[in-house]
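Fill in residues.
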């Protein structure tokens, strides 16, 4: 029951801290239920286990809790995530656990009664209420309270008896030791090595031997704060600089200047930075309007149906790509991919198709920004999903999209200097196109010149000339010599797949 708290692919480090949390939240092997003596009192064999993650805002407490929940799923049969920064929302969400557990109908209006029902289940977490009250029928659960800035709110929701584990995140250092919790830690900043790894993941730009020193100096100046690393990575991508040039920019501007503290309204202190101003200033008017709406909503539970999806603009993606807006294309497709993956279990085939299309668009867009390894990853997933499409006869569905996908994976192989694999992919693409019922020679406008270039790189100049002359003749017979229409035709065709 983690809601929208998905595991982050770009999470780095913290392995030692995750193991420390294990020491306090996971029962030792010697205390596993299966090893308990039959006549031993189950109530005394187990006790409530708890741990607190404390630290400044932006240090990564919530992300660490999310990572822990997802990587330790095998140890807990039930995981509950509750945002505790607002007492009213906490009360409502805690009571709603009764509905999620099947203990109440969703039309229940008595929050207090629902809370008591949940507390009762936590103390005696029966897997099936119809089965005997014995240890084999008990569920091992994990309860996570996120953003517990006011420790007093825990009193009404803290389990009175054992049976499970509780993890909290808080900016209050006293959360580590209080009436409820006796163990915890103050989350330290990321190490410089972890900062470098995180920045490379967020920017999708891998460091080479010439830029390694520049990245190390950038990481050293970010003080290991994940929020700062995230903002700087966004700035890096928007400026489209190398690590060396970005270091020069930071040295000219001064990292401290970018994160200087200024007095806010009514004398209150708040962090304002040039990074924030630049980020907001670069947003389009519709995006700023969307942020103005979102800032009024509960950040942990924003109904999707309140927002209008850009997919209603049928030509929106083509518009961005045609005008060279690849950087703008990528976040659009990444968001589409995330939404589709979350909805796959409910929507089914439609979500799977959206996932496939998102991988294809990302693979193509990332080539234009020279992120070739990431591009190959998305293109390979696109091709694999096409090859896995169900068909009554059991044969692979060979259509225009499959032919185009083989062309694109060939491009990825070529960029990785895997020439023979690229040649095989382009030949397969040509074969698929030529086998279509509506085949036209002009469909070879992508794979055949690419095949010719691969033969040229291989040193097989006769085959290279044969392929390139053949596609030139096809273009000339369709649009005339030295035409300007062929690229437009192929671009439209690829976005109509």
């Amino acid at each position: 029951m983690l809601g929208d708290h998905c595991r982050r692919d770009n999470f780095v480090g913290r392995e030692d801290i995750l193991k420390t949390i294990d020491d306090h939240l996971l029962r030792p092997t010697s205390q596993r239920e299966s090893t308990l003596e039959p006549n031993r009192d189950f109530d005394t064999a187990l006790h409530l286990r708890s741990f607190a993650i404390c630290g400044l805002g932006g240090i990564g407490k919530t992300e660490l809790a999310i990572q822990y929940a997802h990587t330790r799923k095998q140890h807990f049969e039930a995981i509950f995530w509750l945002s505790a920064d607002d007492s009213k929302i906490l009360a409502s969400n805690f009571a709603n656990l009764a509905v999620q557990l099947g203990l109440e109908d969703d039309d229940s209006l008595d929050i207090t009664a629902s809370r008591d029902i949940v507390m009762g289940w936590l103390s005696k977490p029966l897997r099936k209420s119809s089965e005997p009250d014995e240890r084999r029928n008990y569920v091992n659960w994990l309860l996570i309270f996120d953003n517990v800035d006011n420790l007093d709110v825990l009193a009404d929701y803290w389990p009175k008896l054992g049976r499970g584990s509780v993890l909290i995140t808080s900016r209050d250092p006293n959360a580590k030791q209080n009436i409820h919790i006796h163990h915890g830690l103050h989350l330290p900043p990321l190490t410089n090595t972890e900062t470098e790894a995180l920045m490379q993941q967020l920017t999708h730009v891998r460091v080479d031997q010439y830029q390694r020193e520049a990245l190390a100096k950038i990481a050293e100046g970010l003080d290991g704060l994940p929020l700062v690393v995230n903002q700087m990575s966004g700035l890096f991508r928007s400026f489209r600089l190398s690590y060396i040039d970005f270091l020069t920019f930071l040295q000219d501007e001064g990292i401290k200047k970018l994160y200087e503290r200024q007095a806010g309204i009514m004398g209150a202190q708040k962090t304002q930075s040039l990074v924030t101003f630049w980020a907001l200033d670069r947003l389009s008017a519709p995006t700023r309007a969307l942020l103005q709406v979102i800032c009024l909503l509960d950040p942990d539970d924003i109904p999707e149906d309140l927002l209008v999806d850009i997919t209603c603009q049928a030509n929106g993606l083509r518009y961005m790509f045609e005008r060279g807006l690849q950087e703008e294309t990528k976040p659009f497709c990444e968001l589409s991919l995330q939404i589709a993956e979350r909805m796959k279990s409910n929507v089914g085939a439609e979500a799977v198709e959206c996932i496939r299309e998102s991988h294809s668009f990302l693979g193509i867009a990332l080539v234009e920004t020279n992120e070739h390894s990431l591009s190959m990853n998305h293109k390979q997933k696109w091709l694999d999903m096409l090859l896995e499409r169900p068909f009554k006869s059991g044969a692979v569905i060979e259509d225009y999209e499959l032919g185009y996908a083989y062309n694109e994976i060939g491009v990825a192989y070529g960029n990785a200097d895997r020439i023979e694999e690229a040649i095989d992919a382009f030949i397969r693409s040509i074969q698929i196109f030529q086998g279509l019922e509506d085949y036209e020679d002009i469909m070879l406008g992508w794979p055949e010149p690419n095949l010719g270039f691969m033969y040229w790189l291989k040193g097989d100049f006769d085959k290279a000339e044969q392929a390139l002359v053949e596609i030139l003749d096809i273009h000339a017979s369709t649009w005339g010599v030295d035409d300007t229409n062929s690229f437009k035709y192929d671009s439209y065709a690829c976005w109509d797949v």
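Residues 33-45, 261-272, 491-497 have pLDDT under 50 and may be disordered.
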